[in-house]
Design brief:
The complex is a heterodimer of chains A (126) and B (253). With 126 residues, chain A is α+β, with helices and mostly antiparallel strands. Chain A is built from four helices and six strands. Classes of the chains: A alpha+beta (126), B alpha/beta (253).
Chain lengths: 126, 253
């Protein structure tokens, strides 16, 4: 079929399918990135295993702020990921958690920035 | 007194695959990333086991799969704290090192995660149709303690009476699956409570997917979805069920 400015390509299911086949699946890659980074978000402290998430970080920040403002103790007992009560020092644990959080999220961010520009499966390398 | 820590890898010879090479590769990488020594032990299979693998080209291969004997790991381990890992589990991070010194006697995975996003392990969440939760024997942390010994003894008991347990729980009695035997033992000894499992899913690549490339900790994996192929990049530990594909990139690891 020819149009005023040359041949017209009609999209058929065949070529749309083959396009989809070659297209890099960024959404799957995002999910894989998320899972691969999240498995690194565990720290050990005083015999307990803690998953570093925003809830834990917020709790530790709040405890440390209260210790500074109201002279409260930085020591307390919280359950770890396995519901075992563990005695912690909030200053020590927050340092550990922050370091792990930043390390993981920096890697996650850098990998995502690189991969988000990929459009074809053939563009992705290691 | 500090406890000795290490990695234990058990393997059996097979006519189709070089399991010794896989075990040595697995041991080298685990030592590098976890910073502890490893011990590789060859098991003489007490009974031959067979399993069919489906490879990416659709080829089916019935292979000798001599996995029996892992319940002996407690006696075979020279360490106070042990990470028992399969020879096709490639360690690429220090995540597992977190578990040394933890408060548990025996920890294993209760979920496996397909890194390609195909979610092929969704059917393995439960062992039976009545929702008996499955555990994975691919990576097990244990310490020399009464609690861990109880689980290993129960694991052996389930193996020795596998036909009975298959009938009782409602799964096929052949081939023997370590995952099933360990799941039953783990559940019995923990009062059927979902506890003492790793807090992340076991990252795995199914036998129908393959490794395209590997470089400096990064895997480039090819997967199949609705008869099309695509790639995904992944960084981290990986249970590679396509062992042929793993051996092809072994020199790069």
């Amino acid at each position: 079929m020819t149009g005023p400015s040359g041949p017209v390509i009609i999209s058929t299911m065949d070529n749309l399918e083959s396009y989809a086949r070659e297209r890099f699946e960024l959404n799957r890659q995002k999910q894989t990135l998320k899972e691969q980074q999240q498995q690194r978000l565990t720290v050990t402290y005083n015999g307990g295993l803690f998953r570093v998430d925003m809830t834990l970080l917020n709790y530790l920040y709040m405890k440390n702020a209260n210790a500074g403002l109201f002279n409260q103790s930085t020591k307390c007992i919280i359950p770890d990921s396995y519901d075992t009560p563990i005695e912690i020092d909030c200053i020590e644990l927050v340092e550990l958690c922050e370091a792990r959080w930043n390390e993981v999220h920096n890697d996650w961010y850098n990998e995502y920035q690189e991969l988000k520009t990929k459009r074809k499966a053939g563009d992705v390398s290691v | 007194m500090s406890l000795s820590k290490g990695i234990l890898i058990l393997y059996s010879e097979s006519a189709q695959l070089d399991y010794l090479r896989l075990s040595e590769l697995c041991a080298r990488l685990a030592e590098k990333h976890l910073g502890v020594p490893s011990t590789v032990v060859k098991l003489d299979p007490v009974q031959k086991n067979f399993r069919t693998f489906r490879y990416p080209n659709g080829e089916l291969e019935g292979t000798e799969w001599n996995n029996i004997g892992r319940y002996s790991a407690y006696d075979l381990s020279p360490y106070d704290e042990t990470l028992l890992i399969d020879s096709d589990y490639i360690v690429q991070s220090d995540t597992l090192a977190n578990y040394f010194g933890c408060d548990h006697d025996f920890v294993c995975h209760n979920r496996s995660w397909d890194v390609t996003g195909n979610d092929v392990f969704r059917h393995d969440r439960f062992m039976t149709q009545n929702w008996f939760e499955m555990r994975w024997a691919t990576v097990v942390y244990f310490k020399k303690s009464q609690g861990a010994k109880r689980i290993f003894d129960a694991w052996r008991m389930v193996y020795e009476n596998y036909a009975y347990y298959a009938e009782l729980f409602g799964f096929s009695k052949a081939p023997f699956r370590n995952d099933f035997a360990m799941s039953i033992a783990h559940q019995i000894c923990n009062g059927y409570v979902n506890t003492a499992t790793f807090d992340y899913a076991l990252p795995a690549l199914s036998s129908s997917d393959s490794i395209l490339d590997y470089n400096n900790g990064r895997w480039l994996l090819k997967y199949e979805y609705k008869q099309s192929h695509n790639v995904v990049r992944y960084t981290g530990d990986l249970h590679v069920m396509n062992k042929r594909s793993l051996l092809e990139v072994a020199d790069k690891l």
